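Predict the 3D structure for this chain.
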Amino acid sequence: VRARGCQLRQNTDIGVYANGAGSSVELLDVLVQNTRNAPGGSAGRGIVVQDGARVDATRCVLEGCGEIAVFAADPGSRVDLVQVDVVGTERWSGTAVAAGVVAQDLAEVVASEVRVEQTQGPGLFVSAGSIECHECELVGNGFAGIVLWSQGRVSLTDSLVQGTLADDNAGGGVGVYAA
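Done. Predicted structure below.
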């Protein structure tokens, strides 16, 4: 799938979903805005990549997602983000926190010139996956700019973590939290 200059607004559950090896989505100048949680409490995610799929997003904006803006999971799954803004990802009543970009279970995210701001949880969350950020900005996020968990890997170069806020539920206010 290729999408250019598109707007995905007020969708329920997931804005863009790529699932399975061989599945590929290219996004260029795309707005994913106000993806909301489904009745019964699932997701509210902007982009989801699972089971070996791939998404390439360039000059995109993910705004007001209802749990996670970018979620990558499973071996072989990869997300490339270039000049992407993630703004105002919000937690919903069924979760303790939200997150801007998540890589878990051996998924890989490669980001360049990405800004994650005002997320009601970590800007980046990694659990047994990897995120590589070059010239990224993580500004005004809750709990931690980056959470590294369970054998995850994060590589930051020429990046900024600033103004991390304590979370009402989880505390924090930490730039980088590794456990």
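The chain has a mean pLDDT of 94.
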